[in-house]
Task: inverse folding
């Protein structure tokens, strides 16, 4: 009894530094953000007044925030569909046995290893009509092609999603590939003996066996997409107009450029609640899917 | 015993990890050739400068001279090159009371934002004495660097203009000698627009385009704060016509900041642009000169008008080295300080008496003298919530240029923005 208490005490002491760090770097900022969201804080004008839920009412009437929320939904859904569909396809390709397979797996991961800000700054040039390599490539097939991707709402949004996919898809695929390698070859052999073709095997064996893996990955990748801001910060500055301003970018702009910290906190609180809800839903779904 | 030693080691390791997180950030020390009297005790003769010039090839030469003549050892921190990041970082330093930086270089947008926030130290009693103030552009000092309480908060490091730059080869090809008025300007743009090249190039990204909107508003005799004014409307309509009716400038420049615009200008895609500075980018690309790209006087529309700007040195109120910082600022405001900037950074002196100095020579001096003599020189229109206002106006303009809103809607919303951010 004494020994177990002693070990428990030692365990607590060892965990304590991590706990203290967590409290100061996570719990305290969350509580403070909730508190500030109830104030109108405009640092430049020296304003700090308690306004209750006014900031929350305002944000649902603010066309910039509504546009940001809309694009964030498009960005997350579009990017995640791309990640899942193309990620599984890429993982299946990487799972095939062919010469140079290991080199290909390494090369495929390269974009993921690069910082998003660097990629986004390069992408700003890549999608430029005059200097961009995207249009250069298209002009191999259509020499008269002219499009400045980042000036139209739809093409700018497509470009942002495409760059996000280009960067993180390989990582998603590699993680799916890890799941693929846990599926026993015997299951495929048994299915083959029973007359199942490749498509049937994919639908009846691969997808079900990967579903939990994909679901868990999707939770994390979705959360990362929701809090993503660096891609539009460096690539489009939220433009044209506000059409590619992700919600996390809006929080950053309000907090650090406009110095409206109270309003920024209220958007952050809504974002936090949405993410908490999504996490809970996703985790509940993950528990139900089990092969 | 073994258990306790393991426990002790683990505890020590945890403390070490905690302590590691508390170590300070890095700054760059000044030149090794510091003046011997500058190496002060306890940082008394040292300052940290937050600078935008650290990537300039002549920065070290400037730094050496500044240290030698001010008698202050200057550590420096490089400001980010991206304007948004720079603004956010400076805002964070000042608003949080961070004392790790003593002197900061701020542009007009930042100066206007911060001047009434109480984060900057007044300089009128210590640095900007009456004799120096007399030599600085009065309107600019009042609009940009003087707080509502009357405190003067910054030392302008140069005088710059948002001037018209033309490609002389294209001007010659258009059969023109100069661009004197609106008709000349339109004729030049139309004559030089062909084969995928445009008469005018802009930087119409939403946080940059404000400079050009305000320039045209001034040229047309409008008022940037009054969008019921017919001249203001006419100016924006003119920009719309340039892009959509005459097609002498591309709509796709709404994604461009100065780096993209300048590259296109250097590559010959544009015949003219409005641009700040003294042509450093064009010089580096071997495209600068009287027969190539050079600055010309503004054309006269309803007015002949031009914007001036500067980057100013300001003193962080939270600084713990104010004495040394003031010595540096006195140097920066002196003739020596201004000439150092001219010599190493091509920055035209802000003080009229220094600009008249025979050490300041060349074509820039000639054109600056002409501009000063013939133009209405103004500071840019800025409101307390500067960046918010700039961004909102830029967004509205982009929507108008892309036919998402009408001119009437633009003017109504622009007026609402003026009233909201005033």
Result:
């Amino acid at each position: 009894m004494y020994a177990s208490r002693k070990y428990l005490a030692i365990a607590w002491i060892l965990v304590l530094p991590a706990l203290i760090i967590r409290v100061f770097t996570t719990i305290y900022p969350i509580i403070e953000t909730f508190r500030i969201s109830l104030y109108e804080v405009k640092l430049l004008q020296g304003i700090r007044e308690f306004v209750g839920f006014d900031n929350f009412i305002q944000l649902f009437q603010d066309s910039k925030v509504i546009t940001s929320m809309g694009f964030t939904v498009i960005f997350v859904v579009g990017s995640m569909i791309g990640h899942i569909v193309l990620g599984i396809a890429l993982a299946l390709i990487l799972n095939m046995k062919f010469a140079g397979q290991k080199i290909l797996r390494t090369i495929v991961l390269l974009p993921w290893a690069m910082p998003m800000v660097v990629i986004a700054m390069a992408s700003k040039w890549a999608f430029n009509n005059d200097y961009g390599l995207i249009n250069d490539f298209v002009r191999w097939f259509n020499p008269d092609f002219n499009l400045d991707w980042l000036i139209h709402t739809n093409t700018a949004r497509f470009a942002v999603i495409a760059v996000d996919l280009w960067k993180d898809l390989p990582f998603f695929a590699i993680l799916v590939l890890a799941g693929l390698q846990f599926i026993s070859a015997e299951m495929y052999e048994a299915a083959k003996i029973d007359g199942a073709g490749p498509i049937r095997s994919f639908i009846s064996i691969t997808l079900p066996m990967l579903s939990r893996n994909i679901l868990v990955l999707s939770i994390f990748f979705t959360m990362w997409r929701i809090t993503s801001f660096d891609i539009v910060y460096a690539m489009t500055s939220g433009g044209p107009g506000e059409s590619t301003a992700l919600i996390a970018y809006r929080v950053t702009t309000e907090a650090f450029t406009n110095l409206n910290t109270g309003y920024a906190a209220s958007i952050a609180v809504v974002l936090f609640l949405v993410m908490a809800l999504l996490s809970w839903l996703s985790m509940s779904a993950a528990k139900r899917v089990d092969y | 015993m073994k258990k306790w030693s393991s426990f002790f080691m683990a505890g020590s390791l945890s403390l070490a990890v905690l302590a590691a997180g508390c170590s300070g950030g890095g700054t760059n020390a000044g030149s090794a050739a510091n003046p011997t009297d500058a190496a002060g005790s306890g940082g008394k003769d040292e300052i940290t400068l937050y600078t935008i010039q650290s990537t300039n090839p002549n920065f070290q030469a400037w730094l050496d001279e500044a240290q030698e003549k001010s008698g202050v050892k200057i550590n420096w921190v490089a400001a980010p090159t991206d304007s948004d990041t720079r603004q956010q970082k400076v805002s964070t330093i000042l608003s949080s009371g961070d004392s790790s930086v003593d002197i900061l270089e701020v542009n007009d947008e930042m100066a206007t934002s911060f001047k009434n926030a109480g984060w900057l130290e007044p300089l009128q009693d210590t640095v900007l004495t009456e004799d120096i103030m007399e030599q600085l552009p009065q309107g600019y000092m009042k609009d940009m660097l003087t707080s509502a309480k009357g405190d003067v908060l910054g030392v302008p490091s140069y005088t710059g203009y948002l001037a018209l730059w033309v490609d002389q080869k294209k001007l010659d090809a258009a059969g023109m000698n100069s661009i004197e008025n609106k008709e000349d300007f339109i004729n030049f743009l139309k004559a030089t627009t062909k084969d995928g090249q445009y008469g005018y190039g802009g930087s119409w990204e939403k946080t940059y385009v404000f400079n050009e909107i305000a320039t045209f508003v001034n040229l047309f005799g409008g008022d940037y704060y009054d969008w019921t004014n017919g001249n203001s409307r006419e100016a924006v309509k003119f920009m719309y016509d340039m892009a959509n009716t005459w097609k002498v400038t591309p709509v796709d420049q709404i994604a461009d900041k100065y780096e993209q615009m300048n590259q296109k200008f250097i590559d010959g895609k544009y015949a003219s642009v409005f641009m700040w500075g003294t042509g450093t980018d064009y010089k580096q690309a071997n495209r600068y000169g009287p027969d190539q790209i050079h600055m010309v006087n503004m054309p006269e529309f309803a007015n002949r008008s031009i914007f001036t700007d500067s980057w100013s040195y300001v003193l962080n109120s939270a600084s713990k080295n104010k004495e040394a910082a003031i010595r540096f600022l006195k140097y920066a405001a002196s003739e020596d300080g201004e000439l150092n900037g001219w010599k190493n950074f091509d920055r035209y002196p802000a003080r009229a008496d220094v600009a008249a100095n025979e050490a300041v020579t060349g074509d820039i001096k000639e054109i600056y003298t002409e501009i000063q003599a013939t133009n209405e020189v103004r500071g840019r229109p800025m409101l307390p919530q500067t960046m918010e206002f700039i961004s909102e106006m830029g967004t509205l303009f982009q929507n108008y240029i892309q036919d998402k809103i009408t001119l009437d809607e633009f003017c109504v919303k622009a007026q609402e923005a003026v009233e909201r951010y005033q």
